[in-house]
Amino acid sequence: MQYSLKRYRRFLIPLISLLVVTEGASILCKADFTSLSIGIIDGIKFIGTMFPPDWASFGDMILPAFQSILIAFLGTVFGTFLSIVFAVFASTNLTFKWLRNITRFLIGFERSLPEIIQLLLLIAAFGLGPMAGIIALSLGCVGMLGKLLADTIEELDPIMLEAMQSVGANKIQMVVFGVLPQIIPNLISFALFRFEINIRLSVILGAVGAGGIGYQLDYSFGMLQYHKALTALIVIIIMIFGVEKLSQMLRDRVKMEGALK
């Protein structure tokens, strides 16, 4: 028995520590299985009150859903172009160290601010509506894509960049003719993945004040129109699954073309 304890001690001690920490966190957060079971039962009852969906309002949800897709699309497009600029400035092999450090700090600072907080600040500047949502999603792209693209650029073959520099190419020419052609497959893949994220975020931001299908969902819940809210949820699910399926097909095609090259 003593031998068994020594053998499994390195697994038992972390497991016991994890259980103790989890129990302590549950006590501090007042989370217990009783509250969980009651919440699940109440949630099921509430979902039951939402059926059947208000199919008559289905047509009214199409335009807001399309608006949410456009908000996510514009946020992704503008954010991707901004991310390229930030990625170049954040790359060691293309810029000065002090500029890279400043740009990396700005990218990290953006990631530390949730999109909802950014939206609330932008609403104070631009007011309610899609404009604030588009800008918030664009900034969110910079935080994610800027870092990913910067890391991709830093992993490029330095011999290629040195060869271009040796024949007199300046920084802009190195980026346009040397860097961008090599990172385009990654850029497209990252941008499509971010578009999927922005689709879901557009619904959340819409409920806060950016408009779109998220606003319709929040309005329906606020007016106690639960059947209409369920219809909005169905439209959101269809929208998200459809966009993710399309994005996955495009990413697979990009990967296939990259493999053929």
Task: Draw up the topology in text.
Elements: H1 2-29, H2 33-49, H3 58-89, H4 97-112, H5 115-126, H6 130-154, H7 158-166, H8 171-210, H9 213-222, H10 226-260
Helix pairs in contact: 3-6, 3-8, 3-9, 3-10, 4-6, 5-6, 5-8, 6-8, 7-8, 8-9, 8-10, 9-10
What would the keywords be for this entry?
261 residues; mainly alpha; MetI-like fold; 0% strand
Helix content: over 70%
Outline the low-pLDDT stretches. none
Structural class: mainly alpha
Q: What about the largest sheet?
A: none
Task: Describe the 3D structure.
This protein has 261 residues and is mainly α. It has a single domain (63-260), classed as MetI-like fold (Orthogonal Bundle), CATH 1.10.3720. Helix content is 86%, strand content 0%. The protein contains ten helices and no strands. It has helices spanning 2-29, 33-49, 58-89, 97-112, 115-126, 130-154, 158-166, 171-210, 213-222, 226-260.
In short:
With 261 residues, the protein is an all-alpha fold. It has ten helices and no strands. The chain has a single domain, classed as MetI-like (MetI-like fold, Orthogonal Bundle).
